[in-house]
Amino acid sequence: MKILQPKPFYFDNGPKAVLLLHSFSGTSNDMRLLGRFLERNNYSAYAPMFAGHGTSEPLDILEQGSPEKWWQQTQAAIQFLQEKQKTKIYVFGLSLGAIFATKALEEIPFVAAGGVFGSPLGSRGFKGIRSAFLTYAKKVYSIQQDLTDIEIDSKMRIVSSKIDAKLTEIRKTSVDVTNQLAEIKRPYFIGQGTSDKLVNPEAAPKVASAVKTSQLHLYNAGHVLTINHAHHQLESDVLNFLENN
Q1: For the domain that residue 208 is a member of, what is the CATH number?
Q2: pLDDT at position 179, please?
Q3: Partner of 192 for a Cys bridge, out of 179, 204, 208, 219, CB 3.0 to 4.6 A?
């Protein structure tokens, strides 16, 4: 089976631009519905791909990606939109991307506003994310017809041996960003699914109380709000947020 590799997208439609950062086991595809919606409503939308992502080898994420690289890519993406002479730049992130969207609001003055969906900020443990990544890796390997069961098991053992160190790196960055939440003075959108199994939904209200400029939106949904059944409501709420900020 040939697996179509996801690609970054840039929908250029208007002087205001929204940067969309994807999740740990995700790709820019998770942001495509929201990106197209924003494009239809006269916003430019840019979703880059984090290092290690979008390949048919899950180990690439653990071996090629790092919080330092992903932060550099976030900064480069914002610079790209500046070079496109966008008059306003907003940054939103899903899960892993939420960490860097928030860091951008803490550290980059010309980001107008932004927010997070299914954010790990304030969550104590990453067990759900670990489990989800292993499930994702097994699924990716299973649809590669040239791999035997023994080869899949061998690859899964390597993934399992390497993921904890990567999650420790991500958690450290998440804690550092969480500790700086009070620095955010610009409008901050928080979208959280109440039945999220990957991050603790109870962390979102705590983050909202730490960021005085925040707007908390709760959805009766799971983790990936940009593509699950809550996505229409999320899109409407994000557009309303953008129009008012």
Answers
A1: 3.40.50.1820
A2: 95
A3: 204
Residue 2 lies in a domain: no
Q: Is 232 a catalytic residue?
A: no
| Edge-first strand listing for the sheet containing 214-219 | 9-11, 44-47, 16-21, 88-94, 111-117, 188-193, 214-219
Helix ranges restricted to H, 41-146: 59-64, 67-83, 96-107, 127-142
* Catalytic choice (23, 95, 119, 123): 95
Rounded to two decimals, the pTM is 0.95
Whether 4 is in a domain gets the answer no
Q: Catalytic pick from 53, 66, 123, 196?
A: 196
Contact between residue 199 and residue 123 where contact means Cβ atoms under 8 Å apart:
yes
Concerning whether 123 is annotated as a catalytic residue, the answer is no
Question: Which residue of the set 22, 53, 223, 231 is catalytic?
Answer: 223
Question: pLDDT for 140-198, tens place per residue?
Answer: 999 887 889 999 999 999 999 999 999 999 999 999 999 999 999 999 999 999 999 99
Residue 209 Cα distances to 36, 110, 190, 215, angstroms: 31, 24, 11, 10
- State pLDDT tens for residues 9-18: 999 999 999 9
Residue 196 bears catalytic tag = yes
Tally of domains in the chain: 1
| 3, part of any domain | no
Whether residue 236 lies inside any domain: the answer is: yes
Q: Give the integer Cα–Cα distance in Å for 100 and 223.
A: 18
Residue range(s) defining the domain that contains residue 159:
9-243
Residues of the chain with pLDDT under 50: 1-2
